[in-house]
Every structure is written in structure tokens, then in C-alpha cells.
Amino acid sequence: MEDFLGAVFLIAALFAFGMFNFQKDEPLVEAGLRSQAEAIVGPAIHPLSVEVNGRSISVSGVADTEAEREFILTNLREIEGRGRISSALTVLEPAVPYALHITYQKGQATEIEGPVPTERQRAALRGVLGDRVEALTLASGAPDLEWGGVALRGAQALVMLENGRLEMDGRMVRLNGTALTPEVDAKIGRIFTELPGGYGFEKNLTLLDDGSPLRLSVTKMPDGTLKMSGKLPQALELAAIDQRLSEQNLPITPIAVPFDGWSDALATGLKALDQLQSGNMTLIGSSFTLSGEAWSETAYEQAHALVDQLPGAIKATTDIAQMDDGAAFALTITFDGVAAVARGKAPADLGLRVQSAFLDHPVTGPDLVIAQVRAGKRWWQAATAGIEALKELEHGAVTFSDDELTFTGLVFDSARQEKMAAQLAAVLPDGVETRFDLDYYDDGTPFRLSLEFDGRDAIAKGKVPAALPISAQSGLLGGPVSPGGLVDGKLEAPSDWLAAARLGIGALALFENGVLQVSDNRLRLEGLLRDPNVETQMQDLLAGLPDGFDAETELEFLDDGRPFWLTLTTDANGARASGKVPYDLGLQSQSVIFGRVIEAGDLNYADVPASPEWWNAARTGIKALSMLETGTVTIEPGGLILSGTALDATRREAVERRLGFLPEGFDVSATIDLSGD
């Protein structure tokens, strides 16, 4: 790309200064004329075609206006060196007024009439409205270039409605119709935010629904009276579900039911509520809750059995208590590793002796309230599972309340916590959540270190001992080291592991960027090094790894390590470059310094910069060669060799003076003959 841009700039410059022989350089002339002609027609509103034959230029297509047509032809005539101009341009008819009207009804054919500024904008509208956009007339006269984009916004908003009409008169947009929910109305509002300057927007939408979810809430009073509220879909036959529903004056909406079986959930939920003395049944979307008081164990179990019959799409929650003081059961047991103390409220069938049996340690409870009623099977099963798991802690507490078992305290390691979690998952009822807020004496995993180094900063992960403070490693890497999921090991690390980790950090500091991993008896380094010379330094470091440690490396290099060199030759056939140069001394840069186009021979580019001394020596050598008629210059590390022919002695002296600007430490060898010698 660098070579191509350099050539284009050179052609354009030579053409502009009239340095072409129009007969000898006819192909280049034609290319220059084509480039200028295409640049003139490129910004046209509609695609235009340009053909260049020799110096003759032909242009065809549709101009948006007569002014655009004249502008294009005038600019084509002003091209220097052009021949005859042939025009087959036609001017698009304007539409007055510029108005677009679209009538939409979901499920029916869309009616559309009016103009469209460009075929590209017609294609954009086709993606929204389908093939009905073929009825639009291609016409000029749009208020501005933004009109098509605003029309597309309008079409996108229109098809969100159940039915409606879009009217665009000039820069005024009006949208009327019927939207299903406020969410649709809000989406349409967002479509028309930040319209281009000068545009106005009005909408008048009727909403079929208030946007709230389908729902029914039924409260049963102690005397059996039902109070209902909610919003139901009009597609349901309420009397067939439950006669009591048809007797209520509940809001009805055209929104469809969320899933098949929603009506069955209503019927089953009302039957479950009938089992309670008092309570509430609420169905919101797919979420079902049933709460209240059952006056008998039979009623309690029947209510739960009905809830269990709800469709699978329903997420059900129950909070049903057998009658006592009405307070929910809640239990916390604190364990010190030897004995435990219970507090809260426990059911009659979970007294202190039962708790002690499950914990395998004595439990006392001076502040524990024992209810006169039993808990349901689900509550009792979850609570006893939590007590049994508590004995896995070194010390801590378990709390069971609101369908959540919470463990706090100290556990030996992560493996012990995983054992607890697995045992609980096997026995806990559905819907009971487990939360662990535990500290580890040790996480049970071996020491490991992962350092991700970007050349400046590093992120440390893994598990390291106190003898290897990560923050102290910033001095080796030259930048801050931040923890990212780092675990502090409580135990003492093996000395070999510590030595390998420190050595690996030192090796990582040699990378441009990379990753160090130290685990068990293995060290791995992967990343980017500057060149093979740095790899040698790294391998020298790794040779000091403790016995038994294996090292793996996966390396990439910015450079192959070979020194930079450049040979540039110029003669009657042009200039050619070969060698290995830094990325900032490509052919374009060389051509700019040389003053003429340089072609590539066996030329390679490095991804690393050269030293300022070598780069300045190369520039001096290229500039000196440009002052010769023919010749060759070679720039190597620490030296420059120039040979060739100068036009006269004055030019030779100028070249020699130029070579006097070489950086200190660069040797020069110059052999310059004079023309005619």
C-alpha cells in the first residue's frame, strides 16, 4: 500500500506540473484523466459512469438536478490535458410537493405513494416494507440529503403498530395509529429522537394495553369472602375456568396469554387457595405465589399438592403455615466446634434433642421458641440438612429462613465446602437456595502463579505464599503488578517452587509482552520477544531452574535479529532498493528522500525501529545518491559505501559534503567518478 500511494502521488504531481510527454506517456495520461474524472462524479447523488479513451472523456447516467449536471460538466471541462467531453446525462424530474404517504394494517397489503430520492434509499425501505416500495417514484426535490434516512425511520416505526399511517410532507413527519403496548410507543419515540435539524415529528397513537403483565390476585378473608384484582386476556372463557371470575368486573386486554396452560394455572391456584383458612393467591405472568394459613395438616398438604400440579412453565412459591402464633419458622444454630446454641423459632418436631442428633454435638437453646405445630415436610427437610452440614465447619453458624440456608464461619479448604454443597444439593427440596459466606483456612489447592504482562503492567492470578509478595515484583517488571483473583496461601511453599517463580518473573521481564505460568514442577513462558538475542538471555536465566523443574516456551519475535542494511542503486532504468529496513523507512519514505520513485528489489521490512544513528545514516546515503547520475549506496551497521558517477566536480564536492553529516561512529567509503572520464 505504501508503494502504491507513493506512485499515485508522484504521477499526480508530475501530471500537474506538465512533465509528461503526452505521446510517450499516453497510458499514464489516461490513468490521470480517469482518476480526476472519477473524483468529480463520485459525490453525485446517483451513480454515474465515466469512460476515458485516450484523452476523451464520456459521462452518462442520471443527474439529480440541472445544477448538478452543469457542475459535473463544468468541472470535467476544467481538467487539464483532457480531450473531447461527451455527455449522456439526463436530469431527474422533481416531485412537488415532496410527500410520502404510507398506510399500514398488520396482516394486510401496505398502501404506499410518493417519491424516493435514490434507488439506494428505495432498497433500504424495501427491507422494511417489502416489494410495495416499487410503487414509489424516483424523483429529485427532497428537502435535503437526510430525508431518506428520516423516511426509513418512519417506516420502521409504522410497522411496529397494529395499524397506522405515516405522512411525510417535506421535513414534517406525522405518525397516527394503534400501538399494542406502551413499550411499542416508547420504542417509536426513541426512533425519532435527535432528528436532523429542521425536521419535526408528531405522533398520535392509541394504546390497546397499559403495558402491565397479565395477572390475577385473589385474597381470601377469614370469613371466606374473596377480593380479586388484576388484568386478564380477552381470549379466556372466564366462566369455564371458575364461575367466580366471571362475576368480577376485571379489566380485559387483547394481549395473548404468556403460554399454554395459563388458564389451567388460574383454576388450580384458586382451588389451592380454597384449602386455606385465609390467604392470597397471585399469578403474574409465569410467577405464582400462594400464602396463608391452613387450620389442619390435611388442608396444608392438599394446598401443596395442588400447587405441585401447576404447569411446568409456572415458577411457584408457597408460604403456608399451620396455625399457631402466625410467625414463620426461623432457626439459627451457632457451633464452636464442640457445642452449639440454637435461637429463633423451631417447629415441634425439631426440638433440641433432634437438633443435637443431627449435629452429633450437644445443642442448647435458652432463647429458642419451640412451636406447638409441626413444620411442613419441605421446611423440616431443609433445616435438618443444614444442621447436618454445619458439623463440616471448623466453627460457624447456619441460618434457615425464607427458603435460604446461609452458612458463615471457617471451613478447612474449598474441597470441604464443595463436599458440603454436594451433600446439600442431593437432599434439599427444590426452591431452597444455599449461600456460603465462609473463610478458608487453606483453599486446598497447590501453589500456582500466572502473570499476564503487557509490557508495562501485570496482572497476577493463582495462589502464592507470603514469601512471594506480588506487589514487590513491580521492580523486576518495571511497572505495577495488580492481583486478579489471587489467593494468599496459608501454608509454607517449597523452596524449589519459590526459586522457580522468582526466576520466571525475571525471565518475563525480558518480554515485550507475555504470560508466565508456574505450577507444580512446571514453568511455562509464552509471548513476544524483541529478537533471538533476547531469547538467548532468557534461556540463560532458565538454565538456573531447580532440579526437577521443566520449562516450556512458546515464543514469537518482533524481529529476526539480523542487522539493518540497505542497498540502493540508480541508473537510466530507475532506482531499486534491497535489504532489511525498519518499518518507518519504506519505499514511500525512501522515494520522498530520494526525490524519485524507488522500486523494490529484495526488500524486507522489520517490525522494530532502527537506531536513530542508522536511520540518519540511511537518509544521508539516500540523499547523497540522489545527487549522482548513476550509482549505488549501501548502508550497513557502522558503515556507508557509496560509488557512482557525478555530473561534474561541483556535484561531486556537494556529495562529499553531504557525507560529512554522517553520525559519529559511521565509517564512509566513497568512490565518485565524473561523467565523461
What do these coordinates show?
By secondary structure, the protein is of the alpha/beta class. It has six domains: 90 residues, Alpha-Beta Plaits (2-Layer Sandwich); 109 residues, hypothetical protein tt1634; 108 residues, hypothetical protein tt1634 (3-Layer(aba) Sandwich); 111 residues, hypothetical protein tt1634 (3-Layer(aba) Sandwich), CATH 3.40.1520; 110 residues, hypothetical protein tt1634; 110 residues, hypothetical protein tt1634. Helices cover 31% and strands 34% of the residues. It contains 19 helices and 35 strands. Strands 17, 18, 19, 20, 21, 22 and 23 form a seven-stranded mixed beta sheet that branches. A six-stranded mixed beta sheet has the order 13-12-11-14-15-16, with helices on one face. The radius of gyration is 42 Å and the shape is flat. The two termini are 41 Å apart. The N terminus is likely disordered. This is BON domain protein.
Using the alpha-carbon principal axes, give the shape. Answer: flat
Give the C-level CATH assignment of the largest domain. Alpha Beta
CATH topology of the largest domain: hypothetical protein tt1634
Number of domains: 6
Radius of gyration: 42 Å
| Helix run count | 19
Percent helix range: 25-40%
Distance between the termini: 41 Å
Low-confidence stretches: 1-12, 14-24
CATH architecture of the largest domain: 3-Layer(aba) Sandwich
**Largest sheet descriptor:** 7 strands, mixed
Give the strand tally. Answer: 35
Which class best fits the helix and strand makeup?
Answer: alpha/beta
Mean pLDDT value: 87
Strand content is 25-35%
